[in-house]
Design brief:
Blueprint (H helix, E strand, L loop, with lengths): L1 H17 L4 H20 L8 H6 L5 H4 L5 E2 L6 E2 L3 H8 L3 H8 L10 H14 L1 H15 L1
Antiparallel strand pairs: 1-2
Helix pairs in contact: 1-2
């Protein structure tokens, strides 16, 4: 029993070191982790709560999620420059599944506006559009 409590406190302490939590949340998480560990020790199946219920309620509003300097994930609330990789690695979703879940139009970019503008200017400076036009013209001549 003491071993399970120690393991649960270590797990919750590690989580609390990276996430701001209230006292009630700490106690609730400690109880939840302890129950999960004791179920595992007994060989019982874990009672997994429906994570979809949590993910159906956005962490932030759609208006606040898409800013100039960062895009905020509506599932976990983390801010970053682009969402595509985060969605795949952290939540196992594709961009289209994420858009469908939160009713985001396809015209809305999943990257911060400043990031997109910087990448666009970089492409213009390198002449990538002109090179693409030349390559297409050369391909059309061959046909």
């Amino acid at each position: 029993m003491a071993n399970l409590i120690e393991m649960a406190t270590d797990i919750v302490a590690a989580h609390a070191s990276t996430t701001t939590m209230t006292k009630e949340e700490l106690v609730a998480e400690l109880a939840e982790v302890h129950n999960a560990l004791s179920s595992l020790e007994k060989g019982e199946a874990l009672a997994v709560e429906a994570a979809e219920e949590e993910s159906s309620v956005p962490a932030v509003s759609r208006k606040k999620a898409f800013g100039k300097d960062k895009v905020i994930c509506m599932i976990c609330g983390k801010g970053m420059k682009t969402l595509a990789r985060h969605l795949r690695t952290a939540h196992g979703l594709t961009a289209s599944e994420y858009r469908k879940q939160f009713d985001i139009p396809r015209t809305q970019s999943l990257a911060a506006r400043s990031y997109s503008e910087t990448r666009r200017q970089m492409a213009i400076d390198r002449g990538l559009g002109e090179n693409l036009a030349k390559a297409r013209a050369a391909r059309a001549k061959k046909k």
